[in-house]
Amino acid sequence: MKQINDLSGTWRLSGTDVDLAATVPGCVHTDLLAVGRIPDPFLDDNELKVAWVGRQDWTYQRDIGWDGPVPDRIDLVFEGLDTVARIEIDGAVVGETRNMHRAYRFDVTSRITAESSVAVHFTSAYTEAEQWRDRLGDRPNAYPEPFPFIRKMAASFGWDWGPTLVTAGIWRPVRLEGWSTARIAAVRPLATYAGSSGKLDLAVDIERTRDRALQAKVLVNDREIAVLDLAAGETGIRREIDVPGVTPWNPIGYGEPALHMVTVILTDGDDAELDRYQQLTGFRTVHIDRSADDAGTRFVIHVNGQPVLVKGVNWIPDDIFPSRMTRQRYELRLRQAADAGVNLIRVWGGGIYEDRAFYELCDELGLMVWQDFLFACACYPEEEPIRSEVHAEARDNITRLSPHPSLITWNGNNENLWLHEAMGWNDHPGGDLSWGSGYYLTDLPTIVAELDPTRPYQAGSPWSGSPDLDPNSPDHQTMHSWEVWNREDYLHYRDTTPRFVAEFGWQAPPAWRTLRDAVTDEPMRPGSPGVLHHQKAEDGNGKLARGLAPHFPEPASTEAWHYLTQLNQVRAVRTGIDHWRSHWPHTAGTIVWQLNDLWPVTSWAAIDGAGRLKPLYFALRALYADRRLTIEPRDGGLAVAILNDHAAPWTGDLMVEHRDTGGAVLATTVIPVSAAARSVTLTAIDHSDAALVVATLGDVRALHHTGDTAVPDGGLTVTAEIVPGGLDVHLHATGLARDILLQPDRIHPDAVVDQGFVTLLPGESTTLHVRAPAELDPHSIKEPWVVTDLAAALSGR
């Protein structure tokens, strides 16, 4: 059996005028932060004060040794090095790397002794990227940074929601691994499901030190299903194996996400175990319907033959320093997504191939994963040495991630095919050079077809399916909707019915405490220096202001600005999702930009950089519910869209009320309705001059304000009682109390609440549950802006 010597833990970090204890896995920034050598880069403009870290070279060093019997081979294994590194043992070079997104294995058998030392010398990512940019020629890029010239997390170099903090370090685990005769180098268990049976397309790669006959026993759930013989010298084997009697894996809402343990045991001729591979996987079949119809080209994801309405979110790395991510933090964030009704996570192409824990948790939760290859918003050179790195990276990660049933599609890039045309990059300096199209249209689909033919591949997001079509056409396959937000009001979401919306979103600041903790400006204003430093989008605050202008008067204070921009974010995303969802299956899904943030910033996220839930999060929970009502403009009038993404029909009496500005009922209509499973039913309703239309079916309600109306005082009463773990906050309205928001972080930094914006009709009451790890003062709810409704916000109260 293999012998493992874990090398994680304490190392020594050195650089110019730096020599300190370091933690592996980790990175230079986190090590410097731990001993106070740099200020918190999330505070004020400290990001600029630590920029020097990314420009320096660094060395990690520690003693290593091998005690006891010496096996045939001793390998030094790095699961992740960030990024350009030279590895030495006792001063002798044993390997070099230039890719953050790959694992590396170096044979150190002849180098290592009982008292050896290993050093990992990191060259600044800027030095490497700028060197290859100068050699290969600069080319167009949406951001003024050289990230396309190095295979490193692009977001390290800054984005329109992220800081520029260019890292270096041993960011994933490292170990010594000793083995003899042979080891399992890779396993690709491609598991599919058809009819009532599973199939395992199993590839096993072997590395040897001795030529002898071997066997690989294959088990599913401890039941032996095959024995594979490998002749002397044979280094790989592939078999298709029928696996009857397994339960299929299904996404959330479509059945159980059943998982099965696949085990491969490698033995020698004497039946002695040499190596073992174990991995949970799931049997399911994925297909994307991209057929033509009268309206263009579909994009409907099918799992196990079932069309699935995608209710998705885009995922960026959850920390600008990914080495800080833990399984617990992944679980928290992914459970938050699932609890919000999300069924698909898109891993965006400017980040990383996430940790194994991310995909395992998605497997367990039934969350589908759309995985981008790591290219975003730029022209990428196809010359060496970058081309070989791209190929090796793709092979490495397809093999690593292929066991996970949650992974349902590979995507070639983020926006590169679109921006190349939309931005006219051909006419920019360097536009006549290679720009990545060969990766997306030829290389990557070829590698996916070889290593993972069970999953559909798409050349990019957005992508219309052909170089002859506008890559971002609403009529063909996937679209990114960014004219709204960048240039248009959110009501313009209703102008198009795309086939699939893979990105769209609207900004808002983070929770008040998150912003206040990150910015020391006094007074803090929307345009004060610290607030603007934590707004990375081009003219972001200008777009926020222009987005408010059609709907609200200019905010009277920073607090009112914060409240109204949060409300506008909710209204914008709600307008888009409700409109597009009402066109299912023509529009087959939405993926909101974005679920999460990686530092405290004004952005499109639903969960801010401190992990606090913005009101958008709670809105998503309602928007992505299996059963939802929305009142939509249709054919010059109004229609109630009954959105039933449930396996059972939805029937009952639809009550439609017309109400005045104060919420008083003017007229009521009751309409028997029935929506089939997984369907949308539209019911036209009378169009009147009522200020408010309310539609109710069972315990689901939709509100539609028919125009710009006055917002009278809703007669809101707020009381609180102490309960175990926090407060129950009771709301009662004598009139129409619109968009009531309780901000728990204004009570206690760690307090949470179970709802976002709430509207109460006259005479209605509800209870908000506030919980915290400390005793809360019930009088705190009377503090300014802790509980606010729209009337109060507009009056500056």
CATH homologous superfamily identity of the largest domain? Glycosidases
**Secondary-structure class:** alpha+beta
The portion of residues assigned to helices is 10-25%
CATH topology description of the largest domain: TIM Barrel
The average pLDDT score comes to 96
| CATH architecture descriptor name of the largest domain | Alpha-Beta Barrel
Order of strands, widest sheet: 3-2-4-9-6-7
Major sheet size, sense and barrel closure: 6 strands, antiparallel
The count of strands amounts to 46
Percent strand: 25-35%
How far apart, in Å, are the first and last alpha carbons?
A: 70 Å
Please indicate the count of domains: 5
Q: Mind telling me the C-alpha Rg?
A: 28 Å
Low-confidence stretches: none
Assign an overall shape. globular
- State the helix count: 15
CATH class label of the largest domain: Alpha Beta
Keywords: Glycosidase, Hydrolase
Catalytic activity: Hydrolysis of terminal, non-reducing beta-D-mannose residues in beta-D-mannosides
Organism: Actinoplanes derwentensis
InterPro entries: Beta-gal/glucu_dom_sf, Beta-mannosidase-like_N2, Beta-mannosidase_GH2, Galactose-bd-like_sf, GH, Ig-like_fold
Comma- or semicolon-separated keywords:
19% helix, Jelly Rolls, 797 residues, alpha+beta, TIM Barrel
Q: Can you give a write-up of this model?
A:
The protein has five domains: 174 residues, Galactose-binding domain-like (Jelly Rolls, Sandwich), CATH 2.60.120.260; 101 residues, Immunoglobulin-like (Sandwich); 249 residues, Glycosidases (TIM Barrel, Alpha-Beta Barrel), CATH 3.20.20.80; 79 residues, Sandwich (Immunoglobulin-like); 80 residues, Immunoglobulin-like. The protein is built from 15 helices and 46 strands. The chain is globular. It has a six-stranded antiparallel beta sheet with strand order 3-2-4-9-6-7. A six-stranded parallel beta sheet has the order 29-28-27-26-25-32. The model has no long low-confidence stretch (mean pLDDT 96). Strand 26, helix 5 and strand 27 form a beta-alpha-beta unit. Helix content is 19%, strand content 35%. The chain is an alpha+beta fold and 797 residues long.
